[in-house]
């Protein structure tokens, strides 16, 4: 079967849907997967015929470079369903562009825009029933590319696989988040791959995060690797703080992901006449603002985390609690973004994308 | 079939050896693989029954965390055959220890020493005919561990696979190496994972290395990410320089791999009464020494690269040639190490390890 789309996408549907096994009222994050996946292989210097096939295992040579040299990048997106059963995406072209920015830094081939978008949209239409309508839930979408080419020589692979898989998911965090501002470990280097959604950026965070979890925190906020003074990001989310009425976030750099939710919040803040400073800021500044009562809010922002309020930060053995405030920036941004995502409000920015 | 070893290793031999297809006089590095592999799975909180099976593809869920979060570490070792057909390893316990140091930093479980050593030795005996005896060749051994556990949550996997695969291999470099001292990109951060043999450390080097290759170099020499002044390592090898008669190499750190060949060279230098300085050194120092004629040698050292002389380094658009000298340190170290490895000379250090 072919859909007859311009990319000659081949579609093979499952004969054994797992849909009836899913409890949509009790969804974990990213642990159950929809019936189909989009797959496209790169070999002989080009992307081959893309396919949608039943979600299934992948067979790889043990010398495939993904196992040895970490050549992989990914994206995180979500599909939302409104009460007219329409499917929506949020700024999908930002993810489409960013996966190619990540790939370039990892010496991997760019994936064509029309393959990405048509593959994604066709997959969502086929797995439409997998998009949750329960509050706070959505279909988490994971486009990813990894090296399948073989060899122990430390050099880029000559073959790759691009996949889009989907997981109906509940919230990434349950409740407020406690964070530890890191003083020893680092996420990324100047001139490194921190700005890319590269697999290896995540594995390096797990051990320091586990140490923080043992101390009672949920996440680490990463600082610059030279002084550990400058606040960077939290690995799964960009970080915003509110001092007085001013919203502050770090500028993106080669160490900080250019988050889609981050830039959407900056646009919303501008629209709501909230004073914004995109500038470097330090732990010392946060501690002082906490002590003198001007630190009103901290929150994380990302596709998986949406807008996640931070209730406490730890630093050098001290904990600093954030106040509970009415009509917080975090709650305002979260409402505006999710109202656009779920087609519950006007979208003056043109961010919503209907899958037809 | 069981070997009856203490680890209850199960062995299934191939019925279709590929040995006759291999041209041992024309071996690339790490591109053809021996008949068998050692495999052990981690699940339910422990390592399961280890097996030696025919070299074959691995089947993985598309949500296996190796594809998304780069949780993988590896080692590089070699097996050598002497003219009595005996199999030798070089300081294998150093690799056994180091893979667990790498795993800890990547939040992965340690692999038991007896599983590692018995699995490796049994595999080498079964694939003995795959160990080349052609000069400069050896059986490259690749132990590696990666995350097979499933999920899109950015957290450590709960299942892993340990594999040892082998590739009869010729030299990693053909001839002298031209290197570019990096001024913009970085390999690792303070407090990062640079000291670990983590997959993600390698993918991040490919793009800057490709840029260097386009300029006519073979490898990048990485510098500190803050000032790009301090010489660190070359990704696939540690770096030594000789200024006057003094051998200089950087101290290991959380950004620099504690290389087995590196530390063997330091011991040999001590044994040969060569003055050694293990200290930080700068590009400026190298350029000055090159200009005033005291820079006699540069070379890389690593299991794959053995001892690889550097003929030229580039920095800020200038190339600095190294002189050709008689009885170089590099040639002396290479001869002493390979004579021990191939059982051609006395081993006063106790580095050689007979596989019985």
From TrEMBL, chains A, B:
Keyword hit for Lyase: no
GO molecular function: L-isoleucine-2-oxoglutarate transaminase activity; L-leucine-2-oxoglutarate transaminase activity; L-valine-2-oxoglutarate transaminase activity
CDD domains: BCAT_beta_family
Protein EC: 2.6.1.42
Pathway info: Amino-acid biosynthesis; L-valine biosynthesis; L-valine from pyruvate: step 4/4; Amino-acid biosynthesis; L-leucine biosynthesis; L-leucine from 3-methyl-2-oxobutanoate: step 4/4; Amino-acid biosynthesis; L-isoleucine biosynthesis; L-isoleucine from 2-oxobutanoate: step 4/4
N6-(pyridoxal phosphate)lysine found at: 197
Keywords from the named record: Amino-acid biosynthesis, Aminotransferase, Branched-chain amino acid biosynthesis, Pyridoxal phosphate, Transferase
Cofactor requirement: pyridoxal 5'-phosphate
InterPro entries, alphabetized: Aminotrans_IV, Aminotrans_IV_CS, Aminotransferase-like, B_amino_transII, BCAT-like_C, BCAT-like_N, BCAT_family
Coiled coil: none
Enzyme class: transferase
Pfam families reported in the protein's UniProt record: Aminotran_4
Highest taxon, organism lineage: Bacteria
Catalytic activity of the protein: L-leucine + 2-oxoglutarate = 4-methyl-2-oxopentanoate + L-glutamate; L-valine + 2-oxoglutarate = 3-methyl-2-oxobutanoate + L-glutamate; L-isoleucine + 2-oxoglutarate = (S)-3-methyl-2-oxopentanoate + L-glutamate
Keyword Repeat: no
GO process terms (BP): isoleucine biosynthetic process; L-leucine biosynthetic process; L-valine biosynthetic process
Gene3D superfamilies, per the entry: 3.30.470.10, D-amino Acid Aminotransferase, subunit A, domain 2
PANTHER family linked to this entry: BRANCHED-CHAIN-AMINO-ACID AMINOTRANSFERASE, SUBGROUP IIII AMINOTRANSFERASE
Main function: Acts on leucine, isoleucine and valine.
Family affiliation: Belongs to the class-IV pyridoxal-phosphate-dependent aminotransferase family.
Protein name: Branched-chain-amino-acid aminotransferase
Native organism: Aureibaculum marinum
Taxonomic lineage from the root: Bacteria, Pseudomonadati, Bacteroidota, Flavobacteriia, Flavobacteriales
